[in-house]
Specification:
This protein has helices at residues 3-14, 21-34, 65-78, 100-108, 110-115, 129-140, 148-160, 165-172, 176-185, 189-192; strands spanning 46-49, 53-54, 61-62, 84-87, 94-98, 119-125, 145-146. With 202 residues, the protein is an alpha/beta fold.
């Protein structure tokens, strides 16, 4: 590499604290393109202030206290190994898609906050609201326990946004009866009046 180019890069890195988050995103995208990095979200990790991230209102994933303690210990001792997944910034904030428990534990841990300079690593997914909900469920479904009340609320949101039972099944990895039960749990008769019952419901 040309010595002057290398020095220019070092100068940019030294002055990076003066670059806005938007300018950093543009710069990272240019670097990724220049070096032929894979066009995947993980190739574009950004460090953003933790206070500009807000939790979503539909996350049905719960974590028991022992697992939370273990996760905190892992982050304290091994470092942050996974970025949070967030939506595109709207106004002053990003909405969390995946990583709520990591985000929450970092917020509560002074040691982590100080060590990370009150920032967290994120990747940004540019998705419409319903697809953000689906992305949250997909990220969480194999990793934790979904509370029936919250997951049925997700099914309600998708249904009222015009999603068919088949589309919900495919997107969330559910069986037909599971979608039907979750609609019934909410007492939303109009959402499942046209659904077929399987023999197990007769």
């Amino acid at each position: 590499m040309n010595k002057s180019i290398k020095q220019d890069i070092l100068n940019i890195l030294k002055e990076s604290y003066t670059i806005s988050e938007e300018e950093k995103t543009v710069l990272i995208n240019k670097v990724a393109k220049t070096f032929n990095q894979y066009k995947e979200p993980v190739s574009h990790v950004l460090w953003v202030p933790i206070n500009i991230i807000l939790p979503n209102s539909y996350n049905p994933n719960k974590m028991a206290p022992p697992e939370k303690k273990l996760l905190l210990s892992s982050m304290l001792n091994h470092g942050i190994t996974l970025p949070l997944v967030v939506g595109v910034k709207k106004g002053q904030h990003h909405t969390l898609i995946d990583g709520y428990h990591r985000w929450n534990l970092i917020k509560k841990s002074k040691e982590l906050r100080d060590r990370l300079n009150h920032k967290v690593p994120v990747v940004i997914l540019d998705l419409p609201n319903t697809e953000q909900i689906v992305a949250t469920i997909r990220h969480n479904r194999a990793r934790g326990r979904h509370q029936i009340g919250e997951i049925s609320e997700v099914v309600k949101i998708l249904s009222t946004n015009g999603w068919t039972p088949e589309k919900i099944m495919q997107a969330l990895g559910m069986e037909a009866d599971e979608v039907l039960r979750l609609k019934q749990f909410k007492g939303l008769g109009k959402l499942f009046k046209d659904d077929d019952y399987s023999p197990s419901w007769i």
